Amino acid sequence: MSKPQKQIHLAAHFPGVNNTTVWSDPAAGSHIEFDSFVRFAQTAERAKFDFLFLAEGLRLREQGGKIYDLDVVGRPDTFTVLAALAAVTDRLGLTGTINSTFNEPYEVARQFASLDHLSGGRSAWNVVTSWDAFTGENFRRGGFLPQEERYSRAKEFLATANELFDSWQGDEIVADQATGTFLRDAKAGAFVHQGRHFDIHGQFNVPRSPQGRPVIFQAGDSEEGREFAASSADAIFSRYSTLKEGQTFYTDVKARLAKYGRRHDQLLILPAATFVLGDTDAEAAELARQVRRQQVSGATAIKHLEFVWNRDLSAYDPEGPLPDIDPDVSDEHISKGRAQVRMYRDPLAVAREWRELAAANNWSIRDLVINTGNRQTFVGSPATVAKTINDFVQADASDGFILVPHITPGGLDPFADRVVPLLQEQGVFRADYKGTTLRDHLGLTHPDEVREERVAS
Amino acid sequence: MSSSVSDSLHLAVALDGTGWHPASWREPVSRSKDLFTARYWADLVAEAERGLLDLVTIEDGLGLQSSHYGEPDGRTDQVRGRLDAVLIASRIAPLTQHIGLVPTVIATHTEPFHISKAIATLDYVSTGRAGLRVQLTARPHEADHFGRRTFAPLSLEELRTPAGQERVTELFDEAAEYVEVVRRLWDSWEDDAEIRDVATGRFIDRDKLHYIDFEGRFFSVKGPSITPRPPQGRPIVSALAHQTVPYRLVARQADIGYVTPHDTDQARAIVAEIRAEQEAAGRADEPLHVFGDLVVFLDDDASAAAARRERLDELSGEPYTSDARVFTGTPGQLADLLQELQAGGLTGFRLRPAVLGHDLPAITQGLVPELQRRGAFRRAYEADSLRGLLGLARPANRYAAA
């Protein structure tokens, strides 16, 4: 008997503040005006996507001591946009990236519980951590966290937030006008948490929300990050979008679930993915090449090289050869406020490899960055892209994808109009929403049922 | 200053749970089971907008509501629990078109950087109708929810002692600094900073983004904000004030102060004190609204209003008292009172409906038409932004080169 087909989960990542987003295209709209978010969210909901995803960064990126000006700069507040989007959508999940370093559990738990009430059970929290004093300069607490403690704080932050979400059971509000009993229990919301990072107690003031807790996402990739996800997350926002890497990651993380008493289907793996569609595969490939050139201008290419070289390379011609000098490997990095600051672990080796590549292909600096940078994940005709996505999911490289269009706000439309119907025809993607909450869409059990299961077993 | 019609007044409504009387939730008209739904709040604000009101404020707090000043009361016979006010405002914004949305933010335990971008974003999602009402908390049990500061117990009696006053002054100074940081962050992007210059590949002109480099007694914040300058430039800042120290916060930092005079002489004295503080702060030439706060029981028949108040007092087991004057009567009588108080220098009022389900429609369908008949209130929304409704110009950016 053949394995039943897995259902694909799809999400829409609002284009971010990096060079994947092409702002120079005539079709590119505002990244701030609410209309752009409405348009984007309504396309995702029309296509029956599981959720919309917002990233966050709490300090504007800098390179060489100056605010980085070549990519989209600026974004609105995550919670505020998601709450407003709840008014113009009905079923779409609303996932926000919220930092566990520059916030406090009581406040974040209030915000997510409120968002969950105000959206009828559609909220999700992508828990991220940071440690840098650079971002800390925007906050009253400053950059107090040693790097090695960021996961320890994140874990305790999430555990504490869960204690707050669980401090209301859901049956406390009676609101009986005749008898005058509003609350069943004066101790509703009572909590005590004593730990290394948080020592708090009192009463939480937001009653149990429709989903009990927001759906929890985790995005880190380190050993600690994977354990954190296996123990505490409902889904992982991963970066492995090729078949082989995806399968390796998928197997690794799912294998970690058992020791936390969790089932295989209680953690979804959802890599970020970009796409370029054309009428034919050849047309899509040509379009993808053009998009890469838009994403990597000459100035952007130099900045990317500076990122590895850790030097001011502004004197170099992007259409010319790579620098002869070696990268500066000192601890101080010229780029600040980027998530992927440590992506190139050995800059000297990267530089050597790139010089060889450039020489072998006769590439300029810009050619090199175009050809080695983040290529589009899915390039092809709608049929090709639909098939590739389905093959990935059925081969357990992922449970679906978080799609990142390169144009705001209309970049999702071609996917919604041309790829989604094909997936629906194949019976691997919903034709309509079956439930109302994000947990329903993702097939995740409500925390109350999990609790009951554990009590029963 | 406030309007082209000199005797016209501004009207706000303060939203809190099912209303300001602690037994309000027991009235059949109160949808007490719906309190935690978006629809409940959407319906209230839609009613306020039908009445052409300037704005609604939304109460908030970092602990359960309590009938005691400085500690939880353990009661189960009153509304307990609430949703985050900024998120309620944001959830309502796309459903309304004209009315100002002014959630409460608590300065004491939160980050000005977060609140600045949240209110800027509320201004974007409402296309220019955002404000905030800044509040502080000296309650020790709320400090325990954050675990980063310890506050000694505080009662209303202690509050009146010199030591109590010193503590409160410190918290107000912190709040003033907080608002200063929030407002500087709003200005940290010039309006035309986003240039999208394809020729040079630059999305922004970074010379038009500014580090605020704020170093104060309570905060040091670098900036710039991650959110560009909002549609109103600077959303409206408001605060409730009962005495000199908070009057100073209003005078230094606010666009609207809510005050609680019980008669016209008191109104006159309070306005004079705020104006003097405003001058001392070097803001004499800046417009500053002073709104009177009133709790209202409103019925077409004065005796019905009084009976309603009595019935609610009976349900709660004690006569209702408030920091603000409590009005019981008809729309005509309330219009008389508002105009009388207005003569003391108030430019508007923030009404606290005793029972939202009853007194809010009584305001919009009774008081508002009465004021309109007297030529004392707008007959249509005449502006697209909250600043516009309040007659306040869009402020220049403090960082922009002149």
Automatic annotation (TrEMBL), chain A:
<dbReference type="InterPro" id="IPR011251">
    <property type="entry name" value="Luciferase-like_dom"/>
</dbReference>
<dbReference type="Pfam" id="PF00296">
    <property type="entry name" value="Bac_luciferase"/>
</dbReference>
<feature type="domain" description="Luciferase-like">
    <location>
        <begin position="24"/>
        <end position="395"/>
    </location>
</feature>
<dbReference type="InterPro" id="IPR036661">
    <property type="entry name" value="Luciferase-like_sf"/>
</dbReference>
<keyword id="KW-0560">Oxidoreductase</keyword>
<dbReference type="InterPro" id="IPR051260">
    <property type="entry name" value="Diverse_substr_monoxygenases"/>
</dbReference>
<protein>
    <submittedName>
        <fullName>NtaA/DmoA family FMN-dependent monooxygenase</fullName>
        <ecNumber>1.14.-.-</ecNumber>
    </submittedName>
</protein>
<keyword id="KW-0503">Monooxygenase</keyword>
<keyword id="KW-0288">FMN</keyword>
<comment type="similarity">
    <text>Belongs to the NtaA/SnaA/DszA monooxygenase family.</text>
</comment>
<dbReference type="GO" id="GO:0004497">
    <property type="term" value="F:monooxygenase activity"/>
</dbReference>
<keyword id="KW-0285">Flavoprotein</keyword>
<dbReference type="InterPro" id="IPR016215">
    <property type="entry name" value="NTA_MOA"/>
</dbReference>
Automatic annotation (TrEMBL), chain B:
<dbReference type="InterPro" id="IPR051260">
    <property type="entry name" value="Diverse_substr_monoxygenases"/>
</dbReference>
<dbReference type="InterPro" id="IPR011251">
    <property type="entry name" value="Luciferase-like_dom"/>
</dbReference>
<keyword id="KW-0560">Oxidoreductase</keyword>
<keyword id="KW-0288">FMN</keyword>
<dbReference type="InterPro" id="IPR036661">
    <property type="entry name" value="Luciferase-like_sf"/>
</dbReference>
<comment type="similarity">
    <text>Belongs to the NtaA/SnaA/DszA monooxygenase family.</text>
</comment>
<feature type="domain" description="Luciferase-like">
    <location>
        <begin position="31"/>
        <end position="309"/>
    </location>
</feature>
<dbReference type="Pfam" id="PF00296">
    <property type="entry name" value="Bac_luciferase"/>
</dbReference>
<protein>
    <submittedName>
        <fullName>LLM class flavin-dependent oxidoreductase</fullName>
    </submittedName>
</protein>
<keyword id="KW-0503">Monooxygenase</keyword>
<keyword id="KW-0285">Flavoprotein</keyword>
<dbReference type="InterPro" id="IPR016215">
    <property type="entry name" value="NTA_MOA"/>
</dbReference>
